[in-house]
C-alpha cells in the first residue's frame, strides 16, 4: 500500500474519486494505484502528483533507488522529499531513531521536537520562500548523542515549474569535527 499517497489525498480532503477525476483516470484504477496493486505510467503519475501537490518521482522511488541505496546505505547521508506543508513524502537512510515508513506524512516537529528539527523546518521553509538551494549546518540531539549535519535543501518542482516541496540531502559530519 502507498500510505504516503493515501495520506497526501486525505490531507487535501479529497476522495479517491475526486483525485481520479482531476487526474483524468478511472476511480478503480486510482484505487489500485493507491493500494499498491498497480503502478501508474509516468503521465498518470504526473497527473496524480499535480493534483496532490507532490513530485511524481515518489511513485517510482523504490524502483529506481536501488543503485542509490547501494551507494548510500552505509554512508552518513540522508535523502528526503517533503511537500509544501513540510510533510515527508520520501525518506531514505535516516538515523536509526527514525523509521522511514512511519515518517511519511509527518513533519519533523511531529517526529521529534528540538532545536535541530526547528532549524531543519526553517531551512525547508526558506527554500520554499526563496525558491533556491540553501545549505546549513544543523545539530540534533539523538539517542547516540548529538549529531551535526550539513543539510542541503533544494526546491522540488512539478512539470509546470511550480514548487511542490523540498528535497534535502544531509551528511552527518559529527565524526569530522
Q: What do you see in this structure?
A:
The chain has 177 residues and is α+β, with helices and mostly antiparallel strands. The chain contains 9 helices and 5 strands, in the order ααααααββαααβββ. 40% of the residues lie in helices and 25% in strands. The protein has a 5-stranded antiparallel sheet. Strand 3 and strand 4 form a beta hairpin. Helix 2 packs across helix 3. The N and C termini lie far apart (41 Å).
Helix and strand element order: HHHHHHEEHHHEEE
So what's the CATH class of the largest domain? Alpha Beta
Integer average pLDDT: 88
Rg is 17 Å
Q: For the record, give the distance between the C-alpha atoms at the N and C termini, rounded to a whole number.
A: 41 Å
Instruction: List low-pLDDT spans.
Output: none
Q: Note the beta-strand portion.
A: 15-25%
Per CATH, the superfamily of the largest domain is PAS domain
Number of helices: 9
Beta-strand segment tally: 5
Principal-axis shape: globular
CATH fold call of the largest domain: Beta-Lactamase
Estimate nothing, just give the exact number of structural domains. Answer: 2
Structural class, please?
alpha+beta
**Major beta sheet summary:** 5 strands, antiparallel
Indicate the topology.
Layout: H1 3-11, H2 16-22, H3 27-34, H4 42-52, H5 61-64, H6 66-72, E1 77-83, E2 88-92, H7 100-103, H8 108-111, H9 115-130, E3 134-142, E4 145-157, E5 163-172
Antiparallel strand pairs: 1-2, 1-5, 3-4, 4-5
Helix pairs in contact: 2-3
Amino acid at each position: 500500500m502507498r500510505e504516503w499517497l493515501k495520506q497526501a489525498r486525505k490531507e487535501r480532503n479529497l476522495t479517491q474519486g475526486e483525485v481520479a477525476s482531476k487526474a483524468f483516470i478511472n476511480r478503480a484504477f486510482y484505487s489500485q494505484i493507491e493500494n499498491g496493486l498497480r503502478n501508474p505510467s509516468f503521465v498518470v503519475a504526473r497527473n496524480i502528483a499535480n493534483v496532490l501537490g507532490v513530485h511524481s518521482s515518489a511513485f517510482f522511488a523504490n524502483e529506481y533507488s536501488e543503485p542509490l541505496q547501494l551507494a548510500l546505505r552505509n554512508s552518513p547521508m540522508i535523502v528526503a522529499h517533503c511537500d509544501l506543508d513540510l510533510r515527508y513524502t520520501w525518506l531514505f537512510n535516516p538515523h536509526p531513531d527514525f523509521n522511514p515508513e512511519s515518517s511519511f506524512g509527518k513533519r519533523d516537529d511531529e517526529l521529534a521536537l528540538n532545536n535541530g528539527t526547528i532549524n531543519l523546518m526553517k531551512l525547508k521553509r526558506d527554500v520554499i520562500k526563496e525558491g533556491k538551494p540553501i545549505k546549513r549546518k544543523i545539530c540534533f540531539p539523538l539517542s547516540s548523542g548529538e549529531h551535526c549535519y550539513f543539510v542541503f535543501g533544494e526546491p522540488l518542482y512539478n512539470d509546470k515549474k511550480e514548487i511542490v516541496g523540498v528535497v534535502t540531502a544531509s551528511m552527518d559530519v559529527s565524526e569530522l569535527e
